[in-house]
Amino acid sequence: xxxxxxxxxxxxxxxxxxxxxxxxxxGADVAVVSKLHPLRSHTGAAQGGIGAALANEExxxxxxxxxxxxxxxxxxxxxxxxxxxxxxxxxxxxELEHYGVPFSRNKxxxxxxxxxxxxxxxxxxxxxxxxxxxxxxxxxxILHTLYDQCTRKGVRFYDEFQVLDLLQTPDGTVNGVVAYxxxxxxxxxxHAKHVCFATGGYGRAFQTTSNAHAGTxxxxxxxxxxxxxxxxxxxxxxxxxxxxxxGILITEGARGEGGILRNNxxxxxxxxxxxxxxxxxxxxxxxxxxxxxxxxxxxxxxEPYVYxxxxxxxxxxxxxxxxxxxxxxxxYLGVDPxxxxxxxAPTCHYAMGGIPTDYNGQVEKGxxxxxxxxxxxxxxxxxxxxxxxxxxxxxxxxxxVVFGRRVGMHMAERLRTEGRTKEPLIADPEKRTREMLxxxxxxxxxxxxxxxxxxxxxxMMKGVSVFRTDETLTEAxxxxxxxxxxxxxxxxxxxxxxxNTDLLDAVELQHMVExxxxxxxxxxxxxxxxxxxxxxxxPSRDDAAWLKHTLYWSNGEGEYRFAxxxxxxxxxxxxxxxxxxxxx
Amino acid sequence: MQLNVxxxxxxxxxDSAPYWQDYTVNADPMDTALYLLLKIKWFxxxxxxxxxxxxHGICGSDAMQINGENKLAxxxxxxxxAKNDGDLVAFEPLxxxxxxxxxxxxxxxxxxxxxxxxxxxxxxxxxxxxxxLQSAADxxxxxxxxxxxxxxxxxxxxxxxxxxxxxxxxxxxxxxYRYTFDTRDEGASDRLRVVDSGEGLWKCxxxxxxxxxxxxxxxxxxxxxxxxxxxVLEKVx
Lengths: 584, 237
Hints:
CATH architecture of the largest domain in chain B: Orthogonal Bundle
Number of domains of chain B: 2
Largest sheet of chain B: 5 strands, mixed
Number of helices of chain A: 16
Strand content of chain A: 15-25%
CATH topology of the largest domain in chain B: Fumarate Reductase Iron-sulfur Protein, Chain B, domain 2
Number of strands of chain B: 7
Oligomer: heterodimer
Strand order of the largest sheet of chain B: 2-1-5-3-4
Structural class of chain B: alpha+beta
CATH class of the largest domain in chain B: Mainly Alpha
Structural class of chain A: alpha/beta
Helix content of chain A: 25-40%
Distance between the termini of chain B: 61 Å
Radius of gyration of chain A: 22 Å
Order of helices and strands of chain B: EEHEEEEEHHHHHHH
């Protein structure tokens, strides 16, 4: 079928729903197309908070928030975009509150705020309470409220429609998508004036991850295939506190409420790595510190994990302010955080890189201001770049809502002022997708999807996780060559039309190989250590050579090329944003 | 240990009726029930179909019946449903909605009911510059209800819903409670008109199946009772 809408948003998490809500309020006819029911989106798993300098608990300023974000990014976040985000954040949170988000409250009846890693007062002096939260289910509270409001406003939802192709005119203008209706197995074309990708993250390419099964980076793979680059893909965040072996997230809010990391001798080891803020250092530093402790034999019982100790925090705070993670620990590990320390290890958590955009979410072909017409991106799949080489906790939700909102408003504004018409579709727009799916369904005697996927996750974990070297990355890239061929030669057992998730697993595996190569190749090229990208063979940050973004193009056949993009600095106006050594 | 896993299969494309299929799965007592299904899907039978996403009990995709009780497959461990080698673990779709395929149900009616209760904050007063104030105690009134993940375990455990498919059911009514009792909301009378009806609140006979089924341990019946009292007060003033 052919569906016509002004705006088609792909993905229904925080960024997608914010874009939908604000575009709809701006008068646009909006469709949201998502492979999951919107409420199943991974924004719902965000726990500890959303950062904004509301100053509800103590003095705070958006400028301090901007400084922390820039320093947290290890100085390759774009400073213009960061200033916009930190300035926009308070009013966006207030709008969310007006929409009904059930935030936790402080004694004055204001939104309650708590401490989080890397967020400080007065340019690094000490930890500040900036994380607005709804207990430890902040993302869930925001996701549900946004869905409620989109329902109220009449946003058109296409639930369980998986987008498999991005449509362009011969000159590259984006004018629609092709989606596979999971229920029926039918392909549909969506013809639009503006398409926005809000397709989320890609942690599933790694063995240990806090990400949902759905986090397979589909939007990134489709973007690459359209000849559009990805930016800064080598920067992958490992969150320090995943439940040991499972990778399920334990919020940084646990340390914000007083939790302490301990090694096998009970030592609070973060005192050695970050003497000022200790357990509230940014995630890159803590994950690297945990790995160092483990490597040097100070893991618990010689095993690759350490403890998150909450036993001194008290049952009341655990039950009231951290109920979800308390339950997770009890359910999945049989460990009661009230009386026992929680076994934790770093878990793949967040993609700093993604589809390059400006601060209105307009996708760039390469250099700044050179836009792909009709194409926007927001949320984790986008690279604005706010987070640079390392994202601060709470800034993912801030990014989603601030830039989702800006994209929605920008699309609606353009529709009002430009009187844009839809560019004509190419002939038989579903052809490429139909042939790809038919090819998978027709294949007999290929490898099993899960086996190839497990090998991919293993290669990425071994070669491209917290510590990287020339050797590990080269090996991963060589594995990826083989994996690309294997991913294209899998066989699925389910040959039917109806709700065929077996088929979609095979498609997603091909997407995973595409962006995994971008991560590994970018990491091999960047011969320095910065933020979450830590090279044993190049242990220092090298601003002279590498204070710049990476752009990556691929032809989909394992051939790729790179370009550099300068980081936008505002250091003339704000000398405090000049790159310095990162100490906490 | 080795478990005997039975799944109620049904693909309307080719099956005339549902049937049970047996699988043998090696499992660790600390594995989730979801992982049992994933192991089958990945390595034994790719045609087995179910929904899943976050795999830790917050997205609400994988509510289903496990050994006869409505559960989130990702939030229950093997040790809680099987003790010994050869023990039986049975998976069925949630009862009371049409089956799309295997463990996947058609949620259209479930979300129609959600939409019917005006599940959004209604406040026509001009918005202040800052947040609307709400005391921690007032927030506490709705806190439990805001935990709802709309997985459907409750509504599909409710005998009143089984008997009358048009009954709004616990999930939608809990949503009505969550907004009606939000001190920032001004839409109570409109919302109560919807729920104070033959297909609404009064079909709740406090059977407590919903409470037992809720994976987030929400005290649903308690909040629905509060909503009933509010509906009566609204009328008698």
